[in-house]
Amino acid sequence: MIAPPYSEFSEIASEDILLRKIRPEDVPALVSISYYDGKKAANEAEAAMMLKKIEQDYISGNSIHWGIEEKSSGKITGTCGYYRGFKNDSGELGCILLDEYRGKGFMSRAMKLAIAVGFKKGLKKIFAVTSNQNTSAIKLLERLNFRRTGEEDHEVHYAIFREELFSIRAFRNDEKEEILKLLRLNTPKSFHPSEEKDLREYLENEAENYFVVDGPGGIVAAGGFNTGFDKSRAARISWDLVHPEFQGLGIGKKLTLYRIEQIKKLPGIEKIVVRTTGQAEKFYENMGFQKRHFEKDFWAPGFDLYQMEMRIKKRTA
Predict the structure, then answer these.
(1) What is the domain partition of the chain in residue ranges?
(2) Do domains 12-164 and 167-311 have the same CATH topology?
(3) Mean pLDDT over all residues of the chain?
(4) pTM for the predicted model, two decimal places
(5) What is the structure's pLDDT at 1?
(6) DSSP string across 89-124
(7) CA 299 to CA 239: how far, in whole Å?
(8) pLDDT for residue 267
(9) Domain boundaries 12-164, corresponding CATH code
(10) pLDDT tops 60 at residue 315
(11) pLDDT by residue (tens digit) across 9-44?
């Protein structure tokens, strides 16, 4: 675990929220949800003092505390973070919202971001504790793939583990819109807007072996492969997508290795081809693919074609 403090405070953004450092001007809005050691702030002065204590915990390497900002309005909606140290590469995640922002999905989105950054910092386990009467919190934790690990004194304990974070399964036809959303979240950094039409056509008419990766809160990655190329001697990997919030956790590598193993089981396949862009060339090179063809602006202006191949070594009986 890379414990705090960091050279730069970790700020994490999604398409609609930002986890950021709490500023002094945020304190008046947060009085009603300010706690420290189980004690609730009675006024603004106490809330400010609690914030200073949490900041000291951060400096001591025992806490990461974010404000949850709604990007569209710039308003702070609540707080989220890890608060009780990081013993054994574990961290306890907590999140609380102002009353007016409850039931609008802010907590789910904030916790997904916090889970991702926690594992990127090296946590192996993230756990949460809530009242056994708090059914909404329990449902949220279960939607985020936490599993129940125990109960004590009217509290239930949940945890999510790094090695169990992601699972690969076959794509279903009713999940097209979720896959298209993944593409939009990676546009224009990795894809041109015009490619959404191509992906929709692929999912509706061409997807042969397409897979999704389930993670906290739903599908976090997808990718497939098709056969029948080069006189049925080649399979082609296609449409690899990873949710930006979960990039850097090895999902793309795990999904690529999974497909390579699936392809190796097929008779007659001698090579795997991937047609990608310069943005992903290094990734596939590190996976063992070699560049065979280049074509400038093939996909769209600024999106060149890199055709890469991997020869398959067949298993012997």
Answers:
(1) 12-164, 167-311
(2) yes
(3) 94
(4) 0.89
(5) 73
(6) GEEEEEEEE-GGGTTTTHHHHHHHHHHHHHHHTT-S
(7) 13
(8) 93
(9) 3.40.630.30
(10) no
(11) 989 999 899 999 999 999 999 999 999 998 999 999
User: What is the tens place of the pLDDT at every residue in 158-173?
Assistant: 999 999 999 999 999 9
Residues 6+ away with beta carbon under 8 Å from 141:
128, 130, 158
* Tokens of residue 246, six digits: 């979960």
* Residue 78 token pair: 């609540």
What is the fold of 167-311?
A: Aminopeptidase (3.40.630)
Residue 240 to residue 257: CA distance in whole angstroms: 12
Residue with tokens 């329990």: 138
Retrieve residue 13's tokens. Answer: 């953004």
